[in-house]
């Protein structure tokens, strides 16, 4: 019987980005763990963000593209409850070893995690407008 960890690694796919001998442990974690999870969960993140924006009285949808970018960044930085929900969606896909590594340096890894997610959402801002429920 396959373990949870091996199934997770299979579902997530390959490392995204370069990992070399000179890579820091944080950079390695980012490319081997965070990027594949963010890619896997991309559609869900888009829908979760749209749902959030709708619940916030649709303000997001009336903004200019530049203000939408700022809105995405601001929401993920300032709304701790929403941010923690997003973090949970990522951490749920960690293996036991990855979680052990994560808790050693969670503060810096959380920053990387949220920065990657913000950039991912910002790069898809036009797609976010097209989603409908």
Defining traits:
single chain, 0% strand, Glyoxalase, 133 residues, 8 helices, mainly alpha
Describe the protein's architecture and organization.
The protein has about 130 residues and is mainly alpha-helical. It has one domain. It is built from 8 helices and no strands. The radius of gyration is 16 Å and the shape is elongated.
How would you summarize this macromolecular structure in one to three sentences?
With 133 residues, this protein is an all-alpha fold.
Helix content: over 70%
Poorly predicted runs: none
Please give the domain count.
1
What proportion strand? under 5%
Helices and strands, in order, run as HHHHHHHH
Main sheet: strands, sense, barrel? none
What's the mean pLDDT score?
91
Helix-strand blueprint:
Blueprint: H1 4-12, H2 25-40, H3 42-55, H4 65-78, H5 80-91, H6 96-104, H7 106-123, H8 125-130
Helix pairs in contact: 2-7, 4-7
């Amino acid at each position: 019987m396959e373990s949870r960890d091996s199934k997770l690694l299979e579902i997530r796919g390959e490392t995204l980005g370069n990992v070399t001998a000179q890579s820091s442990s944080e950079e390695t974690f980012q490319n081997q763990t965070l990027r594949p999870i963010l890619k896997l969960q991309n559609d869900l993140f888009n829908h979760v963000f749209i749902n959030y924006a709708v619940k916030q009285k649709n303000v997001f949808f009336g903004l200019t593209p530049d203000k939408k970018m700022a809105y995405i960044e601001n929401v993920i930085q300032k709304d701790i409850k929403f941010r923690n929900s997003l973090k949970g969606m990522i951490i749920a896909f960690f293996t036991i070893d990855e979680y052990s590594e994560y808790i050693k340096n969670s503060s810096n890894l959380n920053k990387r995690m949220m920065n990657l997610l913000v950039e991912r959402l910002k790069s898809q801002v036009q797609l976010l407008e097209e989603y409908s429920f």
